[in-house]
Amino acid sequence: MSADMAEVTRDARLMTLPGVYAPQHDTLLLMAALNREDIGPGTEVLDVGTGSGALALHAARRGARVTAVDVAWRAVATARLNALLHHRRITVRRSDLLSALPGRSYDLVICNPPYVPSPLGRLPGHGAARAWEAGRDGRAILDRICRTAPAALRPGGRLLLVHSGLCDSEVTLRHLADAGMRAHVSHRALVPLGPVLRSRLRWLRATGLMDEEETAEELVVIRAEQA
Fold first, then answer.
1. Using one digit for the tens of pLDDT, what is the confidence trace for 8-37?
2. How far apart are CA 60 and CA 40, in angstroms?
3. pLDDT tens-digit map of 148-174
4. Could you list the residue range(s) of the whole structural domain that residue 129 is in?
5. 213 in any annotated domain
């Protein structure tokens, strides 16, 4: 077991209500990136799409003042429950990305958004699939984050964003550069295909999003900083 996995699983009190996204490979990769950031008392962190609250808790353990948001009420309830169980003061709110936080700014924004390409032309309005379905190119939510997250960062503020290589990290880097940020890929990892990708593997190959030889998914963490 990796050190990061141990960090997530060491306490059996990390609860995940049915239908809430549980910590997975992307959570661990983003946690590894978070570990390299200068975080301490006084650092204000925003966790967008918090799910279980695992990353929000990790930032809070390092002394940060953390706000966590999610569009799903069950995720909000789960993150609040985990904050209580771990005795961490985390502000958890329901929000469609940053819509419920107008005018607020942070030192660090972390985000693990929905990013799985889907043959469906629409995003689900409810249910567990809302945590991963992201339109035909996987960028329906990513592009919104690239547009809105920079305005939520203070001068010198940082963004950590994880997504699949299927979504084209070069597009993310270009969008963030257009928003005036210095961005690069800070972490990469190859992980086994999960059940959702396996279930649509034929479609992914037919559309050219995956090659016939590919049997794993690349995850990337984009680190961006206000210029």
1. 444 457 899 999 999 999 999 999 999 999
2. 9
3. 999 999 999 999 999 999 999 999 999
4. 44-226
5. yes
Is residue 13 situated within a structural domain?
no
Confidence class for position 5, pLDDT limits 50, 70, 90: very low
Domain presence at residue 221: yes
**Domains contained in the chain, number:** 1
**Dihedral in degrees, nearest 10, Cα atoms 34, 87, 69, 155:** -50
Whole-prediction pTM value? 0.92
Sheet holding 216-226, edge to edge: 90-94, 65-70, 44-48, 106-111, 153-164, 216-226, 181-192
What is the DSSP code (8-state) at residue 20?
S
CATH number, domain of 198, equals: 3.40.50.150
Q: Which amino acid is at 208?
A: G
